[in-house]
Specification:
single chain; about 250 residues; alpha/beta; Rossmann fold; six-stranded mixed β-sheet; 8 helices; about 25% strand; binds adenosine-5'-triphosphate; binds magnesium ion
Length: about 250
Amino acid sequence: MSTATETGAKVELREVRIDYADGPAADLDLTVAPGEVVMLLGPSGCGKSTILRALAGLQPIAAGAASVDGEPHDQSHKCAMVFQEDALLPWRTARRNVEFALAMRGVPRPQRRALAVDLLGQVGLTDFAEHLPRRLSGGMRQRVQLARTLAARPRVLLMDEPFGALDAQTRLEMQRLLVSVWRRHRTTIMFVTHDVDEALLLADRVVVLSPRPARVVRVVDVDCPREPDAQLEPTFARQRQEILALLGHDLTKP
Ligand SMILES: Nc1ncnc2c1ncn2[C@@H]1O[C@H](COP(=O)(O)OP(=O)(O)OP(=O)(O)O)[C@@H](O)[C@H]1O
Ligand SMILES: [Mg+2]
């Protein structure tokens, strides 16, 4: 059995409205192509996490329709969420955390170990498979989470500021790792970040959202290559400036 996920699914949000008791949190129209990486950027509290939670089926939508490959999003079971905080089982080793997800997918016990080791290899943790989470660094725990999420073979990865708590160097490593995992699996990725550079480094398209309720202000097609030195390209600086302006940062002020 291969550990490669199926190709990513198409995600469609048609006039999706998500409400809290005190009013709407999002009002959204967006189509994400199969295997596309879309980064969501917007002011704090605008409704980004709410949107991902709704797609994961953790939050009801009040109006409109969300679908994954044409199926209602809450029945498709194709989306998997990766959180910023660490959600590993602390009493299980890295390998057994991944095996747990394989068991949930119904993979028979004799096959789980080899698959888990393979997935941990894909995230660069071959030598740490038998470590408990508390013996791993923050970046390593985030890698285990990614391996565990991939074990479920999601067709859409929903990532809510997954690298927000990591130091700059580890964050860079995780960004590169995500690109390599994405090249292998071609999963559709919807990724929330506050970091414009991270958005430009990873995205096919950057979706800039308005203050709450989140609406699409602009969709920016990223012209920069997904390469380590992309930030040196003039197009990178230009698109960075364009997005910051859309987010309301006044670049003329210090
Ligand atoms: N359970 C809830 N009940 C009522 N209001 C909520 C609830 N959860 C979130 N909100 C509000 O809804 C808005 C959107 O929240 P959300 O967490 O989606 O924002 P966000 O864009 O992810 O913010 P951040 O960038 O700070 O993570 C916020 O104003 C928040 O206070
Ligand atoms: Mg959030």
